[in-house]
Specification:
The longest helix is centred in the middle third of the chain and has 12 residues. Strands 1, 2, 3, 4, 5, 6 and 7 form a seven-stranded mixed β-sheet that branches. The chain is an alpha/beta fold. Strand 1 and strand 2 form a beta hairpin. It has one domain. It contains nine helices and seven strands; from the N terminus they run ββαβααβαβαααβαβα.
């Protein structure tokens, strides 16, 4: 959750925080300290054995000289994919960017020291991972957001830095293959057969910031790759976007 307005670019915001999880939707937030005009992000699966990634968000951020940090309630959980990224695995300095939410996030907010890109991932018990219906599961998640995120949004630096906060669940139901509209990411028949992509249902996606259109509700279909695009382009990274972010749709409609 770090925004810092970039007067050199014709975009709109940028500090971002995202919360994402696994089946039935976990919460993530991303923070971008910068201006944005086109945005997006997803670095990899949250479960199972991982292979080293050649294209990913950390490589893009480092190549552009953008700082980053990942805040986890449970840094040792399977949701933390950062240690499997080659740059992080090979560098103790990069690995040190993965920190516990408490107290690191609060301290960074209070000291106006958030990096250009932040990701926050709550613990399984509070991130809405397996919620079915509003109560009491989502009430627990809502209380977590109130206690951990609301103070960040209320901090004067949030508006002064033109931070962008994104709160989302990455899927509503992994067994839902019907899709809530047309697919936006094209895969080969072989990739689909191998289970590389499923619809995951219709999920909640919130965009919060001073440069966001108030009350805007989109009717478009977006997948995680569009979030990677919006995140990186909001930080001025427009070339060589990782993976499907390179051809994912932009999300300009959310911004003034």
């Amino acid at each position: 959750m770090n925004p810092v307005r970039n007067t050199d670019e014709h975009s709109v915001l940028a500090r971002r925080f995202d919360a994402i999880g696994a089946s039935n939707g976990s919460l993530r937030w991303q923070n971008i300290r910068h201006n944005i005009h086109n945005r997006g992000n997803h670095v990899g699966p949250t479960h199972g054995k991982r292979a080293p990634c050649s294209q990913h968000v950390v490589r893009a951020l480092r190549a552009a000289g953008r700082s980053w940090r990942a805040f986890f309630d449970e840094p040792q959980s399977s949701a933390n994919i950062f240690p499997y990224l080659s740059e992080v695995a090979a560098s103790p300095a990069q690995a040190a960017n993965v920190v516990p939410i408490t107290p690191a996030f609060v301290e960074a907010v209070n000291n106006n020291a958030l990096p250009r890109y932040s990701m926050i991932h709550p613990a399984y018990a509070v991130n809405g991972h397996a919620c079915r219906g509003a109560q009491p599961c989502l009430a627990i998640t809502d209380n977590w957001l109130r206690d951990h995120v609301a103070p960040y949004v209320a901090n004067p630096a949030f508006a002064a830095n033109h931070d962008l906060l994104i709160i989302l669940w990455d899927e509503g139901d992994l067994l839902d293959n019907s899709c809530s509209g047309a697919t936006t990411i094209l895969l080969s028949p072989e990739a689909r057969q191998a289970g590389a992509w499923t619809c995951g249902g219709h999920t909640v996606f919130l965009v919060i910031g001073t440069d966001v259109k108030p009350g805007h509700v989109s009717t478009a279909v977006y997948h995680d790759e569009a979030l990677l695009r919006v995140a990186l382009e909001g930080l001025g990274i427009t070339g060589h976007l990782p993976g499907a972010a390179a051809f994912a749709p932009n999300m300009n409609e959310f911004f003034r």
